[in-house]
Amino acid sequence: MDSSRKCAPARTPNRTYKLKEVSKHMSSEDMWMIVHNKVYNVSPILSSHPGGSEVLFDCAGVDATLAFEDVSHSHFAWEMMEDLYVGDLAPEDIQRLEKWNYKKKRRLKTPIYERATSKPEKEFVDSTEVIKFMSRTAFLAWFAVISLLGYLYIQFRKL
């Protein structure tokens, strides 16, 4: 997502909300979430959300910025956010969220995480091992064909 494309409300914020206050709004009649440190009441779009209401319930009462950015929202969706805007997140809670997100990102970059997510290096394959394997396979295939022909020859001789 383009970092310059933040949810910009149409009207000037007249109220700030603390995380604790936002977390109280988790019902289908009164559902709030935070996107880019702005508080939105998403109750009006609960039944018409293209991703389904479950997606909104998962983000109810919390910072949904990452989930919102994870999906490519249309220009229409960004405009619709203007009508759902109710205020800004309190400055002290913005700092708290930034610290939490920073710690979360640092926690993910452990050596185990790096090994698990990195692409494996190309291993050098010894050509002599490949030749040995192919020669054994060819011999077994040849032996199987000769055995089958011998078996068929014996069966036809009995007739």
Automatic annotation (TrEMBL):
The keyword Transmembrane helix applies. InterPro entries: Cyt_B5-like_heme/steroid-bd (IPR001199), Cyt_B5-like_heme/steroid_sf (IPR036400), Cytochrome_b5 (IPR050668). This is BA75_00719T0. Its main location: membrane. PROSITE patterns: CYTOCHROME_B5_2. Pfam families: Cyt-b5. The chain crosses the membrane at residues 133-154. Belongs to the cytochrome b5 family. Residues 14-90 form the Cytochrome b5 heme-binding domain. The keyword Cell division does not apply. GO terms for molecular function: heme binding; metal ion binding. SMART domains: Cyt-b5. GO terms for cellular component: membrane. It is found in: Membrane. Keywords: Heme, Iron, Membrane, Metal-binding, Transmembrane, Transmembrane helix.
